[in-house]
Design brief:
2 domains, 6 helices
């Protein structure tokens, strides 16, 4: 998997912008890469692709939960208790089929089903005998219909970069802590087959904005004359 710096370098090479004193920074190019990667990934997931990919989803293991009343996240009057993440979770991306969540499951590997809070309330109102467990998100908190759970595992595609260990209540020896790495040196979450298309999209965007004046001094001169 390529790092952010690898992709930034490929964008610069495409435009012969190798010098460190260019008018555009690596961070600006990286921001464009992130923005366009999100568009491509949402397009692919909308086509029912990538849902089993290990390269774009970020796992948060053993996210700590606390027991709260159901009324905290809705106006339904009930003595029902649920579990809620202690911290607000990072923003999860969303496509036409909803949030880009690959899986939510208990430490015992029991998978939970997603349900809007209104659907869960309807289940309660109808008094249906239902052994299934549900999760939903409200005010950036993750809620679980089981009030006895103390932790939960979440695998999703997030809009922002973050360190999963900041939201975990356990130490996972299989997860590499890259929080000390420069963001450009971390693995960039994009399938390899989309890298070339991503580079082309970013190049096109930058050509129409930043690079047009860098590569075409004549245009700059004409703009100065007009002003």
């Amino acid at each position: 998997m390529s790092t952010g710096r690898d992709l930034v370098s490929r964008v610069r090479s495409l435009n012969k912008l190798i010098s460190s004193d260019n008018n555009i920074t690596d961070r600006v190019i990286f921001k464009e890469l992130k923005s366009n990667a999100s568009v491509l990934i949402k397009r692919e997931t909308n086509l029912r692709k990538l849902w089993n990919s290990p390269n774009i989803f970020t796992p948060i293991k053993c996210m700590p939960l606390e027991t709260v009343p159901l009324s905290e996240c809705c106006d339904y009057k009930s003595a029902c208790l649920v579990s809620r993440s202690i911290k607000k979770i990072p923003q999860i991306s969303e496509g036409i089929f909803g949030l880009l969540i690959q899986s939510v499951y208990s430490p015992g590997m029991i998978k939970l089903d997603y349900a809007e809070i209104d659907r869960f309330i309807n289940i309660l109102r109808m008094g249906l005998r239902n052994t299934r467990k549900y999760y939903w998100i409200y005010d950036n908190y993750l809620y679980i219909s089981n009030p006895d759970l103390e932790a939960i595992n979440v695998i999703a595609y997030y809009d922002d970069d973050f360190n999963p260990k900041d939201f975990s209540g356990c130490q996972d020896p299989d997860v590499t802590d890259d929080s000390c790495l420069n963001i450009l040196d971390r693995n960039f979450k994009i399938p390899s087959y989309l890298e070339q298309q991503l580079i082309a999209l970013v190049n096109d965007t930058l050509q129409k904005t930043f690079f047009r004046h860098i590569l075409d001094p004549v245009t700059d001169a004409k703009d100065d004359e007009k002003s």
